[in-house]
Inverse folding.
């Protein structure tokens, strides 16, 4: 990695401490050669109201999603995007954003699909940075464009498609990270987001319900390792070595959970099913379960 | 069938957006966001009067007045951390204040899609503005009947 890691004691507990930086660390290191800071928010204008000095903006929808195919951008487009932002293949990228780093984690997951090696999250995200009274600016940075290589996206390791989930049913755990109301089928959409709905409400048979934000503390940082182990192992029943698939509605909230399971708890085979409920809940011939119970996997 | 002409203020706002390149359209939306007026004194202490627009990604609350001469005024409040939603609310507040109830009801439902923001903001987010317009019309209908 091109920039040193944050030696904070809290991070040392996690499986991959190098994947997080603290606000103090970023304050000290922003501006270092080889380090890029990227803001990724739910609100497409929030960055423009003020951001960490020098941070560039990447929007999950307009930058990372292909405008035509329901898929992520191509290797060519990703290379163009990062090159324009002044990010080289070996740049250390620190991502941060609003809402407990929800969308920042999604961007990090997409960066990982393209094999960008050194991607980290700012623990506590935008909210903590601002709450601590650290500097923000509306001045747009002017990064020098660099060459980013065209890299083929690898969808085989951390991304699950519908057929992968069907094959996984009964063979490994699933984590549903949506709200309890979405899980039980009282509603198909996240409260306040009824535009991304599905034909049928409920959850994938056998999936455990662990709303994504349970992993976050009130100050938007990640909870400590012990608390996370209690949530995902004791409550949800995951065991070391499990192959896990996480899903939500379009794959953004489950990116956050993917980050927790992979980088903080050290699960080595976690996939994010980005088709998620907007696909599963409308797909032909896939089973669902309604109600608060996980439910049985039917013979397929 | 002749389409109802767009009220002047809404037409001007649309034309202003369409005259700009994509990145500048976002800046204009931010200006609208900053211009969303504070609630008048009489509503500041009355959150109960406001209707939450559930379809928006961020909390936004609206209240519509239809006065004795059938003129409409829209009040909206949304947090500073939700500039896009504030921008949408501000466009509508500026665009339809002072119109007659019928003129508000005649605003084409696809007005938000005509601002040229779908590329800069994404179609998904634009739907939040459609919901704002829909809820506004709904309140106008209710208040006109009850008046």
């Amino acid at each position: 990695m091109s920039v040193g890691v944050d030696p904070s004691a809290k991070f040392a507990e996690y499986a991959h401490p190098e994947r997080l930086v603290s606000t103090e660390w970023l304050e000290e290191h922003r501006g270092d050669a080889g380090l890029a800071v990227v803001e990724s928010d739910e609100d497409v204008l929030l960055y423009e109201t003020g951001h960490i000095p020098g941070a560039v903006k990447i929007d999950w929808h307009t930058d990372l999603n292909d405008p035509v195919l329901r898929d992520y951008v191509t290797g060519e487009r990703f290379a163009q995007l990062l090159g324009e932002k002044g990010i080289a293949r070996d740049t250390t990228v620190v991502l941060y954003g609003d809402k407990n780093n929800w969308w920042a984690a999604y961007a990090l997951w997409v960066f990982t699909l393209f094999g960008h090696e050194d991607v980290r999250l700012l623990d506590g995200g935008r909210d903590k940075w601002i709450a601590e009274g650290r500097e923000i600016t509306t001045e747009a940075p002017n990064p020098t464009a660099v060459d980013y290589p065209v890299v083929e996206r690898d969808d085989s390791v951390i991304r699950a498609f519908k057929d992968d989930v069907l094959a996984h049913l009964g063979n490994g755990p699933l984590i549903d990270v949506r709200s309890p109301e979405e899980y039980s089928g009282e509603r198909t959409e996240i409260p306040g987001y009824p535009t991304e709905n599905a034909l049928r409400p409920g959850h994938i048979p056998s999936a455990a319900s662990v709303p994504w934000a349970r992993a976050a503390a009130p100050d938007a940082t990640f909870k400590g390792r012990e608390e996370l182990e209690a949530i995902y192992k004791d409550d949800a029943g995951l065991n070391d070595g499990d192959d896990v698939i996480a899903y939500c509605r379009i794959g953004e909230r489950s990116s956050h959970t993917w980050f927790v399971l992979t980088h903080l708890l050290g699960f080595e085979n976690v996939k994010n099913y980005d088709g998620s409920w907007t696909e599963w809940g409308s797909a032909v011939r896939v089973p669902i379960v309604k109600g608060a119970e996980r439910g049985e996997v039917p013979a397929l | 069938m002749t389409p109802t002409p767009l009220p002047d203020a809404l037409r001007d706002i649309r034309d202003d957006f369409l005259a700009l390149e994509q990145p500048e359209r976002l800046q204009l939306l931010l200006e609208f966001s900053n211009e969303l007026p504070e609630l008048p004194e009489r509503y500041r202490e009355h959150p109960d009067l406001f209707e939450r627009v559930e379809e928006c990604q961020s909390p936004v609350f609206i209240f519509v007045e239809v006065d004795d001469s059938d003129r409409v005024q829209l009040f909206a409040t949304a947090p500073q951390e939700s500039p896009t939603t504030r921008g949408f609310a501000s466009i509508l507040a500026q665009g339809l204040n002072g119109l007659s109830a019928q003129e508000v009801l005649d605003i084409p439902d696809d007005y938000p899609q005509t601002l040229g923001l779908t590329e800069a903001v994404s179609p998904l987010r634009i739907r939040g503005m459609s919901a704002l317009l829909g809820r506004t019309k709904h309140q106008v209908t209710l208040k006109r009947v009850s008046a």
Notes: Chain A is about 30% helix and 10% strand.
